[in-house]
Amino acid sequence: MDEPRYRRATAADLAAIVTMLADDVLGASRESASPAREDCYREAFAEIDADPNQFLCVVEDGQQIVGTLQLTFIPGLSRGGSKRGQIEAVRIASDRRGGKLGEAMFAWAISECRARGCSLVQLTTDKARTDAHRFYDRLGFEPTHIGYKRKI
């Protein structure tokens, strides 16, 4: 793979992004590339794209989208009024996993957070993603908090 190219996603990238989101055990139960869901994804994309504190990224190798992640820049009063960078929905095309693309994507994301004035980068990960936990540990992330969710 040549040097990956990082860019803001466009609506034309939605099918590739959703395909990657659905291409694992957990994602397959939550995501669907079916035509019945297209409007939901388009509406969500429009909201993300309109928010200056959101950056939905796609990673390209040539003309092929091989990765995606979403950055959210969260202003806050805690930590002396510092901003946090939240990394979510990280996916790599299945045929590109294991080739260090994830490390490159995180280096890029952390650099973007730094450039936006963030003093902290955080992420959440499902408890079942033990391989991802080892990856995040290796990158220097620490499991310092317990997260809670409630479906509504």
TrEMBL record:
GO terms for molecular function: acyltransferase activity, transferring groups other than amino-acyl groups. PROSITE patterns: GNAT. Coiled coil: none annotated. Keywords: Acyltransferase, Transferase. Pfam families: Acetyltransf_1. Residues 4-152 form the N-acetyltransferase domain. InterPro entries: Acyl_CoA_acyltransferase (IPR016181), Bact_Acetyltransf (IPR050832), GNAT_dom (IPR000182). The keyword Transferase applies. This is Acetyltransferase (GNAT) family protein. The lineage of its organism: Bacteria, Pseudomonadati, Pseudomonadota, Alphaproteobacteria, Rhodobacterales.
